[in-house]
Write a structure and sequence with these properties.
Layout (H helix, E strand, L loop, with lengths): L1 H17 L3 H24 L6 H13 L6 H8 L4 H14 L3 H10 L1 H25 L1
Helix pairs in contact: 1-2, 1-5, 2-3, 2-4
Length: 136
Amino acid sequence: MALVMVSVVALIVNWVSTGVSFIDGLPGMAIFWLCSVLGYVIYQYVKIGVPAVAWISIVAIIFSIPQFPFSQEVIAYTSKIGLLPMITPVLAYAGLAISKMEIRLFKAAGFKIAIVALLTFVGTFVGSAIIAQALL
């Protein structure tokens, strides 16, 4: 159910961001959804220590390789979905899905983890700005 909700929100965000209508983006999002579901089912039944995201990626890669019978259609439909707008609802859901164990771990680390996070964000921003200034 969460995957369906995230997919619908991602379609709306894609429509606002890229201008591709909800209906035009629906087949591409359905393909992403199908890859996610198939990859997760494989993850549930094949217990060899490979994370679910790897199985989902493998399914998506197989769907898009030229030897796959419908790869051109898969690529055509999924190219209508902007990946950057799609990441926003996914990251929002990931942020809300923090478990109780992670909250306890955060409380145990205290303010030190906030300092490390702040320095990481500042370092990433400054590093990106330097690279952008040098290359652009």
